[in-house]
Amino acid sequence: GESVGLHLPTLSVQEGDNSIINCAYSNSASDYFIWYKQESGKGPQFIIDIRSNMDKRQGQRVTVLLNKTVKHLSLQIAATQPGDSAVYFCAEKRATSGSRLTFGEGTQLTVNP
Amino acid sequence: EAQVTQNPRYLITVTGKKLTVTCSQNMNHEYMSWYRQDPGLGLRQIYYSMNVEVTDKGDVPEGYKVSRKEKRNFPLILESPSPNQTSLYFCASSPRDLAFQETQYFGPGTRLLVL
Q1: A103 touches chain B (CB under 8 A)
Q2: Do the chains contact at A99 and B48, CB–CB below 8 Å?
Q3: Alpha carbons B64 and B44: distance in angstroms, whole number
Q4: Numbered residues of chain B with Cβ closer than 8 Å to any chain A Cβ
């Protein structure tokens, strides 16, 4: 079935290192993709999004890469900080699904001091 | 402060007892949505609303109802809750319809246990 999913459920990095969180998707008909961050006990928080006709987009300390050939999305966090520890979700807005979002399962990022 | 609020934050109920989870936003947003979050399944969309009196089903609408009589409020109604509706529920809103660079703001969540 169609899905948006993540390669790894957990990722542990050292403070100051770069983090890469991956997401695979199977539906080619999408408008854009979004990355969310969810801290413990809180609702998801928008980080960055990327349109399906783009390959790369940069924000503050974050970069999202989209490879449509292999249907792969990644979130890169530069100089990871303890405050980056959270669950990260990718989500997809499909062109054929109206105003609906489809989320991946999430990756738990742990930053070690 | 711009925010999405949900009430209650925690709720324990019994099978079949009707309940309503309220959601309110103070940002004059047109788009509002309800999600449920379950371990291993991630976030799944229940219902969404494009504007007052305009609602539509998400991916998992069975067992839920919504209404949008006012722009700021979007209550989630469980007419006859069942144990499989035990979950963490999030309300969200965005200024307009979901679109590139249109940030969606999430509430703090409502944890529901149906016995």
Answers
A1: yes
A2: yes
A3: 13
A4: 4, 31, 33, 35, 40-45, 48, 50, 56, 58-59, 90, 92, 97-101, 103-109
Please, are residues A37 and A48 in contact by the beta-carbon 8 Å criterion? no
- Nearest-CB residue to A105 (from B4, B42, B108): B42
Q: How many CB pairs under 8 A join A and B?
A: 60
pLDDT by position in tens, chain B (length 115)? 889 999 999 999 999 999 999 999 999 999 999 999 998 788 999 999 999 999 999 999 999 999 999 999 999 999 999 999 999 999 999 998 888 888 899 999 999 999 9
| 3 state SS for B10-72 | EEEECCCCCEEEEEEECCCCCEEEEEEEECCCEEEEEEEEEECCEEEECCCCCCCEECCCCCC
Rounded Cα gap, residues A16 and A52, in angstroms:
30
CB-nearest to A103 from B42, B50, B103 is B42
Give the single-character DSSP code of A39: -
Is residue B7 classed exposed, middle or buried when 0-12, 13-18 and 19+ CB atoms within 10 A define those classes?
middle
HSE-up of B88 (CA within 13 Å, CB side)?
A: 16
Task: Fill in the DSSP letter of residue B85.
Answer: G
Closest chain A residue to the Cα of B90, Cα to Cα: A43
Q: In chain A, which residues have their Cβ closer than 8 Å to the Cβ of B50?
A: 99
